[in-house]
Amino acid sequence: MGRAQANMLLLLAGAIWGAGFVAQSTAMDDMGPFLFIGLRFVLATLVCLPFAWMEARRASEKLDRASVKGFVWIGVALFLGMASQQVGLLSTSVTNSGILTGLYVVFVPVLSVIFLRQRPHAVIWPASAVAFCGIWLLSSGSMTGLSVGDLLTILCAVFWAIQVTLIGYFGQSSGRPLALSCVQFAICAALSLAVAVAIEPIRLDAIAAAAPEVLYSGIFASGLAFSLQAVGQRFTTPAQAAICLSSEALFAALFGALLLSERFTIAGYLGCLLIFLAILTVEIVPLTRNKLMQDQAAD
Known about the structure:
mainly alpha; Diverse_Substrate_Transporter; DMT family transporter; transmembrane helix; EamA_dom; cell membrane
């Protein structure tokens, strides 16, 4: 798979997550955040399991212990990111949450340099800044002061950056993206349900009321989209992946307009333009540079 196709998979994951934002927000009317996270990732594990089994049958080598340990840590990062985002939404606005979650676009290149010793293409830094500006404008560009929820959402952005960075490393080194997805889903589900049983009410009528949201979030926004992320990140860098995945904010706004009759402001349209500009820059500039270098080598 080429880098362009991988980035398209990541864009598709962003679109699915964007649509899932509607389901995620309405599900919270019926159940607590940890129960919702746990149920969606139980479904995601069940969806992914048969594909991970087929992948294992075709694999020439068994997973080594280091890869399995890495998959577990990715699951922990996924749980911490989901938990801090969901709990943060209880005491912050959607606008602030959208802006602050988008910080992971900036955090990923920094983590890649610090922990993976990867030197991103120079275009990543301005593209990350442009993508964050787009998310800011898409969220109306207003901050009212940092609450506890805001701080939790900043923490969420750190965990998302860690998850993206770890997937970039272990997805490529193991060559088993579906096994990675299955393990991270199972870890996230187990940790979330453990917390839910300890601190949240478990009511069957609430689960039934939120069943459509749980089904969409579990099958598509979790099982499919996170698997697309794991597959796509095998063939691109974590920093480029973060830029493509930042389109989640754009698609969330689009689906909000289509499904909830929300409308863009002029700043929102400009934000959409900046996010797409950042994605296109990350995609086109390295390709153009590589082609020029190949042409010069041929001459």
